[in-house]
Amino acid sequence: MKNMLDYISVGVFIDGGYYAKVNRALKAHERSIIRVRSLFDYICARLSMEEGVHVSDCQITEAHYFRGRFRVKEAYDKHLLYNERKFEDTLIENDVIFHYKHLREVERDGQTEVVEKGVDVWFALEAYELATFRKFDYVVLITGDADHEMLVRKLKALKIKTVLLTWNLTDVDATSPLLREEAGHHWELSEIIEDSPQLKRQLLYKLREPAVTPLGDEF
Asked: More exposed terminus of the chain, fewer Cβ within 10 Å: N or C?
């Protein structure tokens, strides 16, 4: 266990596609979205408690968000610009660095599919590179994607403690069992808040708009 003079440096990496799925489900079921600041506070509070240090000595020194998004004209036509900018304001206010790649729409068998290429690879490369240079004590991955199993394995090889943070809801893809098994620590927030209504109130921002109001996917 660390002593009270030690300092814990935390890197947080957010899979934007996964985060958006969670927020869409929360809007539908709870008429709420995640409070980024409260989520970060929870991460620091829990890690400081587990490591036996004061919460002020546990800091998220870097946070990164990765997502595919439409070009400006497509986003305008789809009425997404306001929601994208509003969510970016939230990221900026919480010192989160955002990384975007353009989405493409392709026609397949008469259906329009949205293609997000390279974001998962970028996520993994950036997380590994920054962990190597910044020497985080902990890396927190907010994702449920099986593609990140090897990233977790590589981070563990660097002797960096890795936390997988998920929030599985009925219409969100379940966390990959391989990813969950590989991670040293797994925090499933849907289970954690069952025993702590107060934490649920802290983590969620209640929306004034009805759940049927089109709010976009960018929160």
From this structure: N
